Predict the 3D structure of the following.
Amino acid sequence: MKRIKSILIGALLTFASVTFAAETNESHWFHFDTPDEIVPSTMLENHFAYDAGIAAAKNGLWLAWLEFVPGKGDELWVDRRGKGGWLSKKRLSAVPADFARPTVTLDSEQKAWLTYEAKDTDGNWNVFVQSLEERRMFREALKVSDMKGANINHQVVAFPSDKGLCIIWQAGSMGQFDIESCYVNEGGMPQRTFPFPRLPKTSPDCISCSLFQNEWHPSAAAKPNGELCVAWDSFDGESYNVRVRNLADAPEKAGVIAGTRAFEGNAQIASDKNGKLWVS
């Protein structure tokens, strides 16, 4: 009798295992909606390439990316890509190092700029900018951040009627993060003043430097009249909120646009052609 029971139990377990395996193979744990459109992609030549930034110019696509070198670090690359492929692929880093967020931005004159973050030998992360010359050669990179610590998560804004840029980033110092900015003129030089009458007279400008809260993940947008508006995440010790400031206003006028007890963060800000701001 015991032998018969053992055989029956074994048969049931086998049947259950086969059934479970069949269901697992035939069904999916996650079901996704059918996409409206499938866009084919092309992988870059090196499968270690990652963290790419892209900008669409009139004469092709500008790309900047990192290529991981095992055991050494990352290389920083940039080039413009046309219908026939690369036009002049260039490695900007002399030796592998620690880089992040390579970003290509086109200004109002369609001139390309490269910004990125890099770690120095003391462990500090800094934000750098390079402008593109006529023969697709970048000038020497210039550092725009001026504080020790982690200057990271930068964003770049091109003004509608100006050839320069404004770079926004989160600066880590004294155990907390603040939001800072710097104007870069058309020659690629960090500038101590903004060329707009309704923007701060000094640069880098501390957009939000509170001693009582952490601030990070900035997003910026330029209005048609040249005003610069920035949104960012903040934590005041009790709640995660989203704050917004128009740089034409004093720092203390930064407002909270999402401040409930729930988590609110990762905001993105944009301006339409009429200067109306949208935050998501």
